[in-house]
Amino acid sequence: MDGWLEFAKGPLFALTFLFMLLGLARHVLMQIHLLATKGRTLRRVRWRTLLLDTLSWALPFDHMVRGTLLLTFASILFHVGVLVVPLFLGAHTALWETHLGIRIPSIGEGLADALTLTALLCMLLLFSYRLLVPRSRELSKPGDYMLILMVLLPFLTGFLAAHPSWNPLAWNTMMLIHVLSAEALFVTIPFSKLSHMVLFPFDRLSQVHWQLKPGAGDKIAAALYGDEARV
Predict the structure, then answer these.
(1) For the whole model, what pTM was predicted?
(2) Is the C or the N end of the chain the one with fewer CB within 10 Å?
(3) If one looks up domain 2-225 in CATH, what number appears?
(4) Which of 67, 78, 59, 185 is nearest to 123 (CA)?
(5) Considering only CA atoms, which of 170, 15, 161, 162 is closest in space to residue 7?
(6) pLDDT tens, N- to C-terminus, the chain (231 residues)
């Protein structure tokens, strides 16, 4: 088991992480090429407005649909946990330094635990919303549920591995599941909706990227959710 774990944390981690980076870089290059072919349109874009609109989605309260306050908070806290814990947990920063030569500060175990538990709770809430709310369930595909579970598994197994008294398996076994589930996620990201981590800025250029008329997004939202919906 120790040999498998060392292989998973070493060569396999480097390979799957590189695969994810190259896959996301491909997405970005394709979007830049697509935008470059529309040079005439790009000159008419109000870039300052689009930049402010992109930044406004960091705290998307202005884009909320009525009755989704809890869901909005859950989504924000979920994204915070998903970004902060994988990047700044002490055990992870050691991997970044080993494989990428990048030294970054790490967060304490207490904060990591709090963010992990919050992210797990928010993931369960988002999963339940997709499953139980008719409007969301009709728009959801099996892959949407699978992605939530794929994100949940590394967080859950990592938390259990870090807390032996709660861990039902041997530490090496749980840690191997944790590492392999994270690496499966690396491979999945470029081919799934999770690639929005790099595509999101391009989506905010919908006037260029999707060639929608100004205000088309608001009209689509109104058609789906009512006149008071905003995007």
Answers:
(1) 0.77
(2) N
(3) 1.20.950
(4) 78
(5) 15
(6) 678 888 888 889 989 999 999 999 998 888 877 777 766 566 666 677 767 766 666 665 565 556 567 777 788 888 888 889 988 888 888 878 877 777 888 888 899 999 999 999 999 998 988 888 887 788 788 888 898 999 999 999 999 999 988 999 999 999 999 999 999 999 999 998 888 888 777 766 655 454 445 555 566 556 655 665 554
